[in-house]
């Protein structure tokens, strides 16, 4: 096919959780790429900041329920634009061929810490519905009993990861040095969410003002 270099995005700690189908597939693919001898780079990721918008930011603004867990798992979220930029840098460096890199954000966050940050930036409290991880595990066991609920069981397999007290983060100093990247250029979660809420709240304020200007009274 004329592939010059193959970039595979995997998941941090995937080798530690073979009970999670997606993580098992990722790890198996990592090993397969090594065996093929294909010119490649494997990049493990911890979490995307963009995913937090629909999961927490939007429901809080719309005063809808926010679903969380009591798990202590921490995730170092990263902006997808930073991930893309670091990936392009890695592609241009021949000394990184065949290497396994892990990209992580500046800080690892728990679910409750993310919700608290969104509450502060939105200026309103969240309607949090906390689901104990033990409930997720029991639900997964029940859904595995039926073939038609296997997909649900696979998704709930991540509850095993939540109960493992895993920290999805790694020190990035060596990676930044290898890529020649400046860690100061990496967006923090605070900055990312601050920009999002500032833009959204400004738009909502402008829309409210426009609505008042166009009101017609008889």
TrEMBL record:
Residues 2-154 form the NmrA-like domain. This is NmrA-like domain-containing protein. The keyword Ribosomal protein does not apply. InterPro entries: HCF244-like, NAD(P)-bd_dom_sf, NmrA-like. GO terms for biological process: photosynthesis. It holds the Pfam family NmrA. Keywords: Photosynthesis, Photosystem II, Plastid. It comes from the Eukaryota. The keyword Plastid applies. It is found in: Plastid. GO terms for cellular component: photosystem II; plastid.
């Amino acid at each position: 096919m004329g592939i010059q270099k193959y970039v595979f995005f995997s998941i941090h700690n995937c080798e530690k959780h073979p009970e999670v189908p997606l993580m098992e597939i990722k790890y198996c693919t990592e090993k397969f790429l090594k065996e093929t001898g294909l010119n490649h780079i494997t990049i493990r990721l911890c979490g995307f900041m963009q995913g937090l918008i629909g999961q927490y930011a939007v429901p809080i603004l719309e005063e809808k329920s926010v679903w969380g867990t009591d798990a202590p798992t921490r995730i170092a979220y990263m902006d997808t634009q930073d991930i893309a930029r670091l990936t392009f840098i890695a592609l241009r460096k021949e000394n990184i061929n065949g290497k396994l890199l892990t990209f992580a954000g500046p800080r690892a966050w728990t679910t409750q810490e993310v919700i608290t940050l969104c509450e502060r930036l939105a200026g309103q409290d969240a309607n949090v519905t906390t689901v104990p991880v033990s409930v997720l595990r029991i639900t997964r066991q029940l859904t595995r009993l039926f073939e038609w609920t296997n997909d649900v069981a696979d998704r709930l397999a991540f509850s095993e990861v939540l109960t493992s007290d895993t920290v999805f983060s790694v020190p990035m100093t060596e990676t930044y040095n290898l890529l020649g990247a400046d860690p100061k250029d990496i967006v923090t979660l605070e900055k990312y969410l601050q920009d999002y809420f500032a833009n959204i709240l400004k738009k909502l304020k402008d829309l409210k003002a426009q609505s008042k200007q166009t009101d017609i009274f008889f």
